[in-house]
Specification:
The complex is a heterotrimer of chains A (about 400), B (about 100) and C (about 190). Chain A has about 400 residues and is an alpha/beta fold. Chain A is about 40% helix and about 20% strand. In chain A, α13 (about 365-375) links the parallel β14 and β15 (about 385). Classes of the chains: A alpha/beta (about 400), B mainly beta (about 100), C alpha/beta (about 190). The interface between A and C is medium-sized, with 26 and 20 residues.
């Protein structure tokens, strides 16, 4: 039985964390993710969870504590954003290499400088190559649902990789929205008891060493399994999503096609922008324009074949990046999709729009302008900046 | 009320701008209540001056001389800290009164 | 109500514009509406002009852009009318509710509004008498319900009571004061 409640993105994530009841949470506050661990810390203080909450002095320490705790076999979670995530960068790939299924609530925010606290995807995109699974959410409901699924995905023996579930800073993290939450015991059943780790740092009967030095002769062989696990995780993500849909009724995939099947022009986007785009697409459809959208839910692993297939019959596609690689080649999502389409026999004309940096507004007129440009895509430059003052 | 903001091509490199611009930012219109100073009660103890978070207590030659209403945000800390008894030398008053009697 | 109603609350940091939007959103949700409530994040300093927003609809809401042409504007602090363009984007049939002792006609003149509806209520005065402090946000929820007809007042008060009970479990007088303030503003708001 689910119930309808009003929750902000941060409250929804904290609620999921309470229901997951992790063994250890180590975190340091940062806007706009502060509330997640603040609310969770209250749950700990009120005795609503059994979690050992580790208050640390920085995000570097938070992720280090998470790694240590996870290596004991504990179920470990954390939350951060922007500069906090940047401060974790040194430890993030270690969590992946040690195959620790830490689950992180990551609130997308611009990175400094200049100093800015608002939404874009620069922080998360810069962490894309550290061996973490990355799941984006359009709204609070998706964040709540994906966080519960993330535990199962990360801890699956075919995956054993850390996972971050993201929301868009302020736009979702601080927006009170209608969401459906399921009962505590249903979450417990879905997750299926304690984490089953093969090894534990605390097991005195079977002592293990963790975090060893690997030189030229072993490092490569120890990194490759991360790539293999990343590949395997696609299947696991879909299996877990299917079971979630069966139990709770809400369906998820690696991506979501919105009116994409017969679309002639389409956008590709991630996060909250997709919600606004749905309204614009409905308007265009009402006018007889065959517009659609491919919303990427899972950015790591990158569903390259699936996306190439889904876009094969679209005439022109605009990829919307809420971050830039500062390489003069377009954003991270664009380069992935362009690469995914390279071998395709049938492929759309591609455009890239970099938008919304530092929380810059993305509204219906701006999205309409993208669809208008797609109607004469051949005349457009490859990469454009949307909503910036010239 | 809407200012024209420059585009990226004309902004100074590295977001480096001239210093000391906070004084040009008039925060006085944030007030819904204002502190009013009664000089005859004032003992010039400087409690208000040291407590004001906006440096809005104007002091000359060691004496309180008034309030900088261009920058005072009406937080009321000066009134709270004023030690003069029985009537404080600073009191909070509404920024404006309504016109409609009912 | 098929289409979405958009509301903008103007206040100063500390006056409860955000809380009002959250409480009103929750009340609307409990009465079967789809809702959003979100603040505008600028400098979060006491006294600085702030705004918060609601979307209320009978249909699911997927829009995640900001609200630029609200159907309803609520002004928690009349001094804001001097410095903030509170009627920005308000359509010709829009509705504005101001916390002031002034008459609606005076506010209409001050804001140079031709169309729409102007409502005023002394929410600060009401809150001082019922709650004991100048917290105009909850009475303005009552004024909003009366002026807009968006929700039935009794259900809204009942839902707010439940929310406040959780928040102020140890201060029953605060709950009583707030509920009285909502009811009084509902009865006392006048418009033209």
């Amino acid at each position: 039985m689910s119930k309808v409640v009003a929750r902000t993105g941060n409250e929804a994530m904290a609620e999921a964390m309470r229901q997951i009841n992790p063994d250890v949470v180590a975190a340091y506050p940062i806007t706009p993710a502060t509330e997640i661990v603040m609310i969770f810390a209250k749950y700990v203080a009120d005795g609503l969870v059994d979690t050992n909450f580790v208050a640390v002095e920085s995000e570097h320490s938070a992720m280090s504590a998470c790694v240590g705790a996870s290596a004991t076999g504990a179920r470990v979670m954390t939350g951060t954003s922007s500069q906090g995530l940047c401060l974790m960068y040194e430890i993030l790939p270690i969590a992946a290499a040690l195959r620790l299924p830490i689950v992180m609530c990551d609130v997308n925010r611009a990175i400094s400088g200049p100093i800015n606290i608002h939404c874009d995807h620069s922080d998360t995109m810069a962490a894309r190559d550290f061996g973490w699974l990355q799941i984006f959410s359009e709204d609070s409901q998706e964040a709540y649902d994906s966080l519960i699924q993330a535990i199962r995905i990360a801890e699956d023996p075919r995956v054993h990789l850390p996972t971050m579930v993201t929301t868009d800073g302020f736009i979702i993290s601080h927006c009170l929205d209608r969401i459906e939450i399921v009962e505590d015991k249903e979450v417990k059943e879905f997750i299926g008891g304690d984490r089953k780790a093969a090894n534990s740092l605390l097991d005195v009967k079977k002592p293990v060493s963790v975090g060893l030095l690997d030189l030229q002769d072993y490092y490569f062989e120890h990194r490759l399994p991360v790539a293999e696990a990343m590949k395997n995780s696609k299947k696991v993500i879909l299996e877990v999503a299917e079971e979630f849909a069966k139990k709770f009724g809400r369906k998820y995939g690696l991506y979501e096609g919105y009116k994409l099947d017969d679309a002639e022009i389409a956008i590709v986007a991630l996060g909250s922008t997709c919600g606004t785009a749905k309204v614009v697409i409905d308007e265009l459809r009402a006018k007889g324009i065959k517009a659609g959208m491919l919303k990427i839910r899972v950015f790591r692993p990158f569903p390259a074949e699936e996306i190439a297939q889904a876009l094969a019959n679209v005439k022109a596609v605009a990829v919307l990046d809420r971050s830039d690689m500062w390489a003069g080649q377009g954003g991270q999502v664009f380069t992935e999709i362009r690469s995914a389409l390279f071998e395709a026999v049938k492929k759309p004309q591609l455009l890239n729009y970099i938008y919304g940096l530092g929380g810059r507004e993305i509204d219906q007129p701006m999205l309409r302008s993208v669809f208008t440009a797609l109607q004469s895509a051949e005349k457009q430059p490859l990469v454009q900046y949307l909503g910036v003052r010239e | 009320m809407s200012e024209v903001k420059p585009g990226w091509k004309t902004l100074p490199e590295g977001d480096i701008v001239k210093g000391g611009t906070a004084a040009e930012f008039k925060t006085g219109d944030w007030r819904s209540e204002r502190p009013v100073w009664f000089p005859e009660r004032c003992i010039h103890c400087m409690f208000c001056w040291i407590s004001c978070p906006d440096s809005s207590i104007v002091v000359k030659d060691g004496k309180m001389t008034g309030i900088d209403y261009d920058h005072c945000k009406g937080c009321g800390i000066c009134v709270k800290e004023c030690p003069v008894k029985p009537n404080k030398a600073l009191e909070m008053k509404p920024e404006r009164e309504g016109s409609c009697q009912r | 109500m098929d289409s979405t109603v958009e509301i903008r609350w103007h206040g100063r940091g500390g006056q409860g514009a955000k809380t009002a939007a959250l409480l009103f959103g929750e009340a609307a949700l409990s009465l079967g509406k789809n809702i959003q409530a979100f603040p505008e994040y600028g400098p979060e300093r006491m006294g600085a002009p702030v705004a918060s927003f609601n979307r209320i609809s009978s249909l699911p809401i997927t829009l995640h852009c900001s609200i630029t042409s609200p159907n309803i504007v609520i002004v928690l602090d009349p001094t804001l009318m001097e410095t903030v363009d509170v009627t920005a984007g308000l359509p010709a049939d829009g509705l504005i509710i101001v916390n002031t002792k002034d008459c609606p006609a005076d506010i209409r003149k001050k804001l140079q509004l031709r169309g729409g509806k102007v409502f005023t209520v002394d929410a600060s005065g009401i809150s001082k008498e019922t709650i004991g402090r100048d917290i105009p946000n909850t009475p303005l929820m009552g004024a909003l319900v009366k002026a807009s007809g968006l929700l039935p007042i009794d259900s809204m008060i009942k839902d707010t009571e439940e929310k406040l009970k959780k928040k102020f479990a140890s201060k029953p007088e605060v709950i009583k004061g707030n509920l009285a303030a909502i009811r009084r503003a509902y009865n006392e708001v006048i418009g033209e």
